[in-house]
Design goal:
Elements: H1 2-26, E1 30-31, E2 34-35, H2 39-60, H3 74-97, H4 99-114, H5 119-140
Antiparallel strand pairs: 1-2
C-alpha cells in the first residue's frame, strides 16, 4: 500500500509538471486584461503538485506503514461502484441532453442517494452549482459547455 501511494504521488507530480510546461508554452500569463489560455491550467497544476508533494511527504515520513487490503469489506467496493455508475451516467447524459441538465441530474442523484444529504440541501446544490457554472463559463469566460444531441430549452 505504501509503495502504491508513493508511486501515485510521484505520478501526479510528474503529470503536474507536464501540465505546467504545456500551460507555459501556450501562455500562462495575464494578457491584455484577461487570463491567457494557459493561466488556469498552470495554477491548477501548481496546486496539484503542491498537494502531491504533501501526500508524498506524509507517506514517506509516516511512523508505521499502513497495512491491510484496499477494500476491507463489501462497503468499499459498493461505494466505488456507485460512484463509477453515476459518473458513467453523467457522461451519457452529457452526450444526450447537454452538460447543464446532466449536471443537475448527476448532483441530484449523487447528493441524495449516495451522499444521503437532506432534501433542501440536495435541491439547492443541484440547482445552484450548475447555474453558477453556466454563468461563469458561458457568460463570463465565454467558454461553451458541451451540448447534447437533444436540444433542451433554456440551456443553450
Amino acid at each position: 500500500m505504501r509503495n502504491g501511494q508513493i508511486l501515485m504521488a510521484l505520478a501526479f507530480m510528474a503529470f503536474s509538471i507536464a501540465v505546467m510546461a504545456q500551460a507555459v508554452a501556450v501562455g500562462a500569463t495575464w494578457v491584455q486584461g484577461q487570463a491567457g489560455p494557459g493561466f488556469f491550467p498552470f495554477w491548477l497544476a501548481v496546486l496539484l503538485f503542491l498537494f502531491s508533494s504533501i501526500t508524498l511527504a506524509r507517506v514517506v515520513f509516516a511512523g508505521k506503514p499502513v497495512t491491510g487490503t484496499f477494500f476491507d469489506d463489501r462497503t468499499g467496493m459498493t461505494s466505488v461502484l456507485k460512484i463509477t455508475v453515476t459518473a458513467a451516467g453523467m457522461l451519457v447524459l452529457t452526450w444526450v441532453i447537454a452538460f447543464q441538465v446532466a449536471s443537475i441530474a448527476f448532483l441530484f442523484v449523487y447528493l441524495r442517494f449516495i451522499g444521503k444529504h437532506r432534501w433542501p440541501a440536495v435541491i439547492a446544490m443541484s440547482i445552484l452549482i450548475p447555474v453558477t457554472g453556466y454563468i461563469l463559463f458561458e457568460r463570463v469566460l465565454q467558454i461553451l459547455l458541451p451540448r447534447g444531441l437533444i436540444e433542451v430549452p433554456f440551456f443553450g
